């Protein structure tokens, strides 16, 4: 004989005149629920369970607390059959809620195969908080159809300081119809979220949801966040576009851009402060900005080295006090044991051999050059002292790099196969690769100025193509490639 675990109704004929209560039994925990308690118990678990196990068709959890069992129900038809088997009242309403949960899961699977446990749990807590603060409709009781569901991701800081990418159903936000504005850049019509509390998003986010929530709630910057810009023009560029603008600048110019991040509004040019950047960008972009600011502050330290691999703009501090500048490789070698470490080549065990944490490029700390493979620092220094031009690394540096002409820089820059307009990844200086002339004098507001090149430069000639149109590792290769292209164009025109 089974008893309903919720209301204690029995399956057999009770002493009163009420008919017996049919029960649904759960083999996973050997418990049962009556027809009145079954639908609400299953529905109560849906709001949490819908975020988990996206790869499973049968994902409904057992409604009993503490039981880790899963019901063998994969669709609304099977759930309706369960309810019919016990004569559950109001079953259609609960089946509709389950259908809605399945639609949300389908939408989530379109953008992500599986959610980590912490992201799934945070998604549930966040939507519950937004609903409680009246900023969002309930996931099961909104006015949107399943076809109108929209999913986006935001970054939230976890309790241990890690970034968690959390899905958010943006179509459920309660938007202010009176605040529709069009972004000047992306041309999207955006509206603020209806929020009844004066303390705004800080109160809602609290300590649990610090991160990018404000970007979804307030798509445009507030006047108090950008007072200088607000006094000069309308704040009609959304935070998303500002964040993308800042991110692009940091990607393009690295640490050289941190003091050049300006408002993208036409005619403004206001230099953003760190506080303003925090208010208008996402967490990922602002974290990169902070790291590049730190690199700028550290680059004058004696233990700081820039990565010398072309295209990598990273830099870091190296610990020279321990007699070893290579923590990743040497610590790994040490783990092999003393005998295995002695078996490594002398140049690999050299304490001046460092690698970039970002790209793994090997360099020499002492000589500030790519690592002289096959030679220890002492051997390499001896070669340089003798003036031996056969030193492989020195020869490579002379053939392939030039010192940046930027003030106080001098970092070795490699050209590669691109055009002859160069930008130093360290200091941001722009110059002509052929003559090292400052690019500001070559490309002015009036246009291209060939006299901006230094005397003797190939590009100073009136007949020379512009440096942006020439590509190749060397000038000879670039001229040859340019002539071949010109020949193909002529033949194409004749054909």
Q: Short description, anyone?
A:
With 495 residues, this protein is of the alpha+beta class.
Describe the structure.
Pfam families: IBR. GO terms for molecular function: ubiquitin protein ligase activity; zinc ion binding. This is RBR-type E3 ubiquitin transferase. It comes from Cephalotrichum gorgonifer. Helices cover 35% and strands 11% of the residues. It starts with 22 loop residues before the first strand and ends with a helix. Among the domains are: 1-112, no CATH class; 304-400, no CATH class; 412-494, no CATH class. The relative contact order is 0.05. The protein has helices spanning 38-49, 76-85, 91-111, 117-132, 200-205, 213-217, 227-232, 239-253, 274-280, 283-298, 327-335, 338-343, 377-386, 392-400, 439-442, 475-494; strands at residues 23-26, 31-34, 151-157, 163-169, 181-182, 189-190, 304-306, 315-317, 353-355, 362-364, 369-370, 401-403, 412-414, 421-423, 430-432, 443-444, 447-448. It is elongated and about 100 Å long.
Number of β-strand runs: 17
Note poorly predicted spans: 13-18, 323-347, 489-495
If helices are DSSP runs of H or I spanning 4 or more residues, what is the number of helices?
Answer: 16
- The whole-number mean of residue pLDDT values reads 79
The quaternary state of the protein chains shown equals: single chain
The helix content, as a percent range, equals: 25-40%
Q: Biggest sheet, in brief?
A: 3 strands, antiparallel
Structural class: alpha+beta
SSE diagram, text form:
Elements: E1 23-26, E2 31-34, H1 38-49, H2 76-85, H3 91-111, H4 117-132, E3 151-157, E4 163-169, E5 181-182, E6 189-190, H5 200-205, H6 213-217, H7 227-232, H8 239-253, H9 274-280, H10 283-298, E7 304-306, E8 315-317, H11 327-335, H12 338-343, E9 353-355, E10 362-364, E11 369-370, H13 377-386, H14 392-400, E12 401-403, E13 412-414, E14 421-423, E15 430-432, H15 439-442, E16 443-444, E17 447-448, H16 475-494
Antiparallel strand pairs: 1-2, 3-4, 5-6, 7-8, 9-10, 10-11, 12-13, 14-15, 16-17
